[in-house]
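ok posting inputs for the pyridoxal-5'-phosphate job
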Amino acid sequence: MVTSAQFGDGVAYVAGQYVPIAQASIPITDWGFLRSDATYDVVTVWDGAFFRIDAHLERFLKSCNRWRLNPGLSPAQITRVLSRCVRLSGLRSAYVEMICTRGQPPWGSRDPRQAVNRFYAFAVPYVWLANEQQRASGLHLMISDVQRIPARSVDPKAKNYHWNDLTMGLFGALDAGADTVVLVDGAGHVVEGPGFNVFCVKDGAVATPDAGMLEGITRRTVIEMARTLGIALQERPVTEQELRTADEVFLSTSGGGVLPVTRVDGQAIGNGTPGAVTGRLVDTYWAWHADPGYTLPVDYGP
Ligand code: PLP
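and the output
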C-alpha cells in the first residue's frame, strides 16, 4: 500500500498511473533511455501556484513537434496530470517535469516512425540551482572550453537531453573549484549552461546571447521585467571577454529564477558582490509570483 509519506517525496505519472517518485520507472527499451530520444519541460509551483504554465506547455508542444514526438495529450489534459501529481504530493513549492519519449518501435524495427511515443510526468520538491549561501554571495562561474553541441546538429531551442557537453563542462568547473559552468559556441561566444541562460550587465545595460541556446522561460521573464523596469536589454552575441569584464553577471533558470554570479574564472565581477540590477530583477521575479496574470493555483482539493 502507498502511504502519503511516500507521495510526499514526489509523485510520478507513468503508464497512466500515479506512483511515489521512488517507484517510478520506464522500460529499459524506451528510446528515451537508449538514445536520449525525448523532450521535456519543467514548470515550477511556488506558494501553491504554477508559474507561467501556459508558456511551458507551449514550449513543450513546440519541442515535441520539432522532434516529431506526440505526447497524445492536449495542454488541458497535461495540466490536469501535472496538477494531480502536485496535489497527491501535497507540495506547495515544486519542480514539475513533463516528458515525451520516443517509446519503442516494434521489436527489431529501427524505424522511429513506428514507435509509440510515451508521456511521463513528475512533481518533486522545488529544485534550486544555487543554495542559500550562493544566492546571497553569488556563484563562481567557469567559462568552459567545451563547445556546446552545434545548433545545426541538435536544435537547442527544442528542449532535449543531449547534455554530455554540459555535464562534462560541469565536471571541469567543479574540479577547478567553481560552482557551475557556461559553454561556448564555435565562434567563441558564450551560449548557456546546464539548466540556465546567462546575462551580463555593463553601464546599466543588460545583454544576453541571442542564438545557440534554449529560449528559457525565465530568460523571457527577465526580458519582460527589464522592459517593465526600464532597464535596457539586448539579445545579441556575447563574448567571453564581455562576461569577464562585466559590472554584473547573472543566470536565469526555473531552478531558482535570477541567480547572481560574482566570480568568473576566479576573477571578481564588479566589486565581487551581487549587483543592483541583478537585485532588482531577483525582487521583481519573486514579486511576479503573486501576479494572477502569471500564475495558476493548484487545486489541492478539500
Ligand atoms: N538552457 C538549458 C540547456 C536548460 O536546460 C534550461 C532549463 O532547463 C534553461 C536554459 C533555462 O530555461 P528555463 O528558464 O525555461 O528554466
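notes: The pocket of pyridoxal-5'-phosphate is lined by residues 42, 192, 195-197, 213-214, 216-219, 252-254 (CB under 6 Å). The chain has two domains: 4-125, 132-288.
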